[in-house]
Amino acid sequence: MMTATTTYRNGQLFVEDVSVSALAERWGTPLYVYSRTMMGNQIRALAGAMAAVKPLICYSVKANSNLAVIDTFLKEGAGLDIVSGGELFRARKAGADPARIVFAGVGKTQDEIEYALKEGILFFTVESESEAVRISDCARRLGVVGRIAFRVNPDVDPQTHKYISTGKKENKFGLDLNRAAAAYAQAARLPNIELAGLHIHIGSQLLNPQPYAEALDKISGLCRDLKVRHASFQYLDIGGGLGIDYKPEQQALEPAQFAAVVLPRLQALGLKVVLEPGRSLVGNAGFLVARVEYVKPGYDKQFVVIDAAMNDLIRPALYQAHHEILAVRETADRITGDLVGPICESGDFLAADRELPAVGPGDYVAVRSAGAYGFSMSSNYNSRRRAAEVMVEGGRAELIRARETWDDLIRNETMFERRG
Ligand SMILES: Cc1ncc(COP(=O)(O)O)c(C=O)c1O
User: What DSSP character marks residue 24?
Assistant: First the structure.
């Protein structure tokens, strides 16, 4: 799937039918480029593989929260998975139906809860007994009902990077499975609360489907019991986490493999199914395009200095993540070294100790698999303006976020005023 959106034509890299260097010339670099066709294909493949349970696929907005990306999935019939008031605001601006929004996160504030209650979201995935009490209080004040699904931590190893493992007992997420039944019993007595279902999300970038099986097997008894006790208990939300191929030798967790493991278990439970995929829908649909500024020889390797940096794509610095690097002008020549940005940190690299295409100043490179947790994790560190974003579909390209201006950098700042 990884190669589906890029090709070389006459030695030039194309995303769908658009030349990447033409995009870079037009909108400058660093530039995020997304394939809308691939996003659509990805969600349709997942929906097709899971059709037997007709899941509500709630695109996980945190992966890439650009309005045009959200809109792409809404047009495919998706709901949304959000984790903040800000994401709810984006979801509503993109035209999402609140009745198809689920709200996760360990630290929801009172303001965020009230905002979501007023909007009438489908349910909150709730991380603690005290959060359920807070939702009940807010709902009572507003005279509405808060629908909740406790997030249960099933203590399974998703076999992924420790920073994106979320379903082991040492992780901050979810309720201890042994405490879950009591938490539901307690929440059932709270005013203005409806027990809508149960939630798990065991981690991100899972390449093996077995941990999903293990997690579902651990929670199925509890789900059966809750379904019998509470007529309102209808939903099982199994989160996201499907992994993608960052490296050529990696095999993405394909929807069919995922479905083969989860479908029989979900069908046996007979609950309405919610999925929250992020990375698998957008990761390989995105590229970060950068211009080479300098090639600098080091003691024993080359440093290719580009105009994109860790503030644009933090995954290599944060998770030692691997991203394939493509030359925009095709070359078979290779050098060994690091692809680095201009930021004053040794962690500012997009590829370290790697074989890279032999590029020189003025050339463009495309960092692959940058559609998920790329722009959405970007920052203004070193007072760098955040990148522009472009959506491509077929031969069409549209700017979906303009590059920040210098004024954007200081927009909310004021000088400290000296008095007296
Ligand atoms: C609760 C929840 N759901 C869904 C996701 C999306 O995960 P992924 O992008 O791996 O599909 C995350 C990611 O952190 C999450 O925390």
Answer: H
Return the pLDDT at 157.
84
Q: Of 305, 314, 324, which Cα lies nearest the Cα of 363?
A: 305
Cα–Cα dist 142/144, whole Å = 6
Choice between 26 and 156, residue whose per-residue pLDDT is larger: 26
Q: Is the minimum distance from the CB of 281 to ligand 1 under 6 angstroms?
A: no
Q: Which of 122, 111, 127, 174 has the alpha carbon at shortest distance from 145? A: 122
pTM: 0.97
Closest by CA to 266, choosing from 227, 208, 307, 306, is 227
**Domains (ranges, CATH) in the chain?**
6-34+283-410 (2.40.37.10), 105-275 (3.20.20.10)
Amino acid at 310: M
Instruction: Give dist(CA 316, CA 351) in Å, integer.
Output: 7
Q: How far is the CA of 200 from the centre of ligand 1 (A)?
A: 10
pLDDT tens for each residue of 128-187: 999 999 999 999 999 999 999 999 999 898 777 777 677 777 788 889 999 999 999 999
164 CA distance to ligand 1 middle (Å): 9
DSSP code of residue 255:
H
